[in-house]
Amino acid sequence: MSIPHGRRIVITGMGAVSPFGIGAASLWQALREGRSGIAPLRHPDAGRLRVRVAAQVPADFDPAAHFDERTLPMLDRLSQFALLAAREAIAQSGLDFALNDLGRRTAVIVGSGIGGENSHDEQYRRLYADNATRVHPLSIIRVMMNAPASQISMAHGLRGPAFVASSACASTNHAVIQAAQMIRNGLADVAVTGGADACFSYGLLRAWEAMRVLADDTCRPFSANRRGLVLAEGAGMFVLESLEHAQARGATILAEYGGGGMSADASDIVAPDPVGAAAAMTQALADAGLEPQDIDYINAHGTATQANDISETRAIRLAFGTAADRLAVSSTKSMHGHAMGASGALELVATINALREGVVPPTANLDVVDPACDLDYVPNTARAIPVRAALSNSFAFGGLNAVLALKRAP
Question: What average pLDDT does range 348-376 have in this prediction?
């Protein structure tokens, strides 16, 4: 396997907020066990909605337990999640950003597909339903797309490049690829990157209802009886750094970032094109210096919609040829739901741990074979296999594709 030019990138920290609570370990344990975070929708307007199920952060989540009274009024729910996940990832990495002025050489790149939707909804409700004449003075601070990146940079004194990548469901993977490229090219030594979304507003739920792609019971990727996606919320954040930087400080390396692939279908705003998705996978392999036969596992986009699952199956066959038949492929959305721009972040936690532990998480609820989905989807039960390298797929509305290639820690 050839190594592409530029610095090698490794992952030394990860954190998560998910339907299984706060912590990457909680998320991974649930995925290993095939447990579902999907439950009846909790929402003040649930009785007015057709949406029946969702994968939400547990009801006992109390922001006041994690943020002081000065900071909390500035934070939309997605910024809360992003900050908590970043806090965990940075703690695990063991980095001290004050040492040798490292904060100046650290980037913060966050993916979010929606932004501060809960704050939008809350203030619009005040204006249009309650006939209020004023909104909260910090509304703009909460809803602006760059809020999570700015809040993380301020919380940890990170003064390198900081911004948000927004490309719907591919947002996290686009953010991670941009962060890695900055390190490769010497624009930063370290990056805090990942994704966050929290989008259970009444207006957005109504909009999803109108698209008629939501399941009414659970999420069944690749199963013939799949009924659509299940909305979710959460965040996952990661610390990336150059291999030499990590080795020099004796850091524990969780996995190696091999490369990334990005493409646009340029065909339809919602219907996926397997050619575009395959191009992103092929590019990720090339960027990582990997061949199809080097990959043991793919964490699939796997939304459980009729069109996506068939298209992704075809894309994997296009990219991998005969090597597709030996791949383990699973969709963890079957358990943590579809967290929009944050989905790739939750899936990256799963992919990193599959490499570390040699355990592939299952595709839950896969109980009826679909002849059009003919790969090994690791149905219902985790599988212990050696994982040398893996891909994590994210494909978004708008035909935007972003794929991460990871390798076992060197």
Answer: 98
Confidence band, pLDDT 50/70/90 cuts, at residue 3: very low
DSSP code of residue 324: G
Rounded CA-CA distance 25/23 in Å is 5
Residue pLDDT, tens place only, 55-93: 999 999 999 999 999 999 999 999 999 999 999 999 999
Fold match between 9-248 and 259-408?
A: yes
Confidence (pTM): 0.97
217, 46 Cβ separation under 8 angstroms: no
Domain coordinates in residue numbering, the chain: 9-248, 259-408
The span from the CA of 395 to the CA of 263, in Å, is: 9
Active site residues: 169, 301, 338
Domain 9-248, CATH: 3.40.47.10
Residues contacting 87, CB < 8 A, separation 6+:
15, 155
Evaluate whether 81 touches 66 at the Cβ level (below 8 Å): no
**β-bridge pairing 297-299 and 53-54:** unpaired
pLDDT at 5: 58
Instruction: Write the CATH number of the domain with boundaries 259-408.
Output: 3.40.47.10
- Which two structure tokens, joined as six digits, stand for 86? 């970043």
